[in-house]
């Protein structure tokens, strides 16, 4: 057997991802995690010397598929702005040989959005009709793609500060993603009366304050490489019903949860459920007497599962 892994670049990964059912693959992965057929270690965060940046390793084992792997993602500080890349290495548990080296940027976008979609499907009220999206980049657009058919959305509002200087073509491209989508002039206008609010930004600090919402909503939040990044004020975790992608690792890595624990008395045992529990009907569903918060940090298993799907497709 050759020791040389299959190499997939970003363009190839994008084309292959269009041929697989990403949410279905991730749903199986979380069920495998619940059944003890997968292993998800904590993220490994390492700083570069002299403030030059850092990198995060996302690890994972899929025993039923006989593979393990790691996604490594550096955050490189530069004068012209930080550079973030990501590559996933897939390994065989049987031969010990490398199977695949894949540019993980497309995998990261897809798995981030599809994980949020699984949470929206599990947690959003069946009657939810108003969707808000904060962010307008590739990740935000992927979020819309994966959730647009999960509920009978009557209104979809999108806001991003970058739209203030966006071209007419960019604005038209966004509104063309869904006939129900309208661009909001402010963040407050986007989230007004929303049933579900998806935060899809690379912000290192709060984007909205859930305590200012006119009614309880489901708020989903993702991670970026910036240290202790958070999209809601950490103090408000004490006033929300909190869920996450994986309770064994997320509270020890999510910036809002770390700050809430250290400075505001929040306890990780307050997490009501994670995706393995929600998808296997082992978690309490929210009652919406207060805001509901779903926090994902991105699991190595998600990257490994998608990398394995691309590898099987290319074999």
Explain what you see.
The protein has 315 residues and is α/β, with parallel strands linked by helices. It folds into two domains: 116 residues, ornithine cyclodeaminase, domain 1; 177 residues, NAD(P)-binding Rossmann-like Domain (Rossmann fold, 3-Layer(aba) Sandwich). The protein is 29% helix and 23% strand. It is built from nine helices and 16 strands. The strands form two sheets. Strands 1, 2, 3, 4, 5, 6, 7 and 8 form an eight-stranded mixed β-sheet that branches. Helix 1 runs parallel beside helix 3, helix 3 crosses helix 4 and helix 3 packs across helix 9. It starts with 5 loop residues before the first strand and ends with a helix. The mean pLDDT is 95.
In short:
The protein has 9 helices and 16 strands. By secondary structure, it is of the alpha/beta class.
Topology of this protein?
Layout: E1 6-8, H1 10-17, H2 22-34, E2 38-39, E3 44-47, E4 53-62, E5 67-76, E6 83-84, E7 87-92, E8 98-103, H3 105-123, E9 130-134, H4 138-147, E10 155-159, H5 168-175, E11 181-183, H6 187-191, E12 196-199, E13 218-221, E14 241-244, H7 255-263, E15 273-274, H8 275-279, E16 292-295, H9 300-314
Parallel strand pairs: 1-8, 9-10, 9-12, 10-11, 12-13, 13-16, 14-15, 14-16
Antiparallel strand pairs: 2-4, 3-4, 4-5, 5-6, 5-7, 7-8
């Amino acid at each position: 057997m050759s020791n040389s892994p299959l190499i997939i670049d970003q363009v190839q990964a994008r084309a292959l991802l269009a041929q697989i059912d990403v949410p279905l693959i991730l749903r199986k992965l979380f069920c495998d995690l619940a059944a003890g057929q997968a292993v998800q270690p904590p993220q490994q965060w390492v700083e570069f010397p002299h403030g030059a940046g850092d990198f995060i390793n996302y690890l994972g084992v899929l025993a039923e598929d006989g593979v393990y792997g790691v996604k490594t993602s550096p955050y490189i500080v530069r004068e012209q702005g930080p550079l973030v890349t990501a590559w996933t290495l897939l390994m065989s548990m049987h031969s010990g040989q490398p199977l695949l080296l894949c540019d993980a940027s497309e995998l990261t976008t897809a798995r981030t959005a599809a994980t949020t979609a699984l949470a929206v499907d599990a947690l959003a009220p069946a009657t939810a009709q108003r969707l808000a999206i904060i962010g307008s980049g590739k990740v935000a657009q992927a979020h819309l793609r994966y959730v647009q058919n999960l509920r009978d959305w009557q209104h979809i509002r999108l806001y991003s500060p970058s739209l203030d200087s966006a071209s007419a073509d960019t604005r038209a491209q966004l509104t063309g993603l869904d006939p129900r989508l309208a661009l909001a002039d402010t963040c407050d206008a986007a989230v007004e009366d929303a049933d579900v609010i998806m935060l899809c930004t690379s912000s290192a600090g709060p984007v909205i304050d859930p305590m200012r919402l006119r009614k309880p909503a489901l708020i989903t939040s993702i991670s970026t490489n910036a240290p202790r990044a958070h999209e809601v004020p950490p103090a408000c975790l004490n006033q929300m019903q909190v869920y996450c992608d994986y309770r064994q690792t997320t509270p020890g890595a999510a910036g809002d949860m770390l700050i809430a624990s250290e400075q505001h008395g929040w306890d990780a045992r307050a997490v009501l459920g994670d995706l393995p529990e929600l998808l296997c009907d082992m978690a309490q569903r929210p009652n919406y007497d207060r805001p509901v918060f779903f926090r994902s940090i991105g699991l190595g298993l998600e990257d490994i599962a998608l990398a394995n799907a691309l590898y099987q497709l290319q074999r």
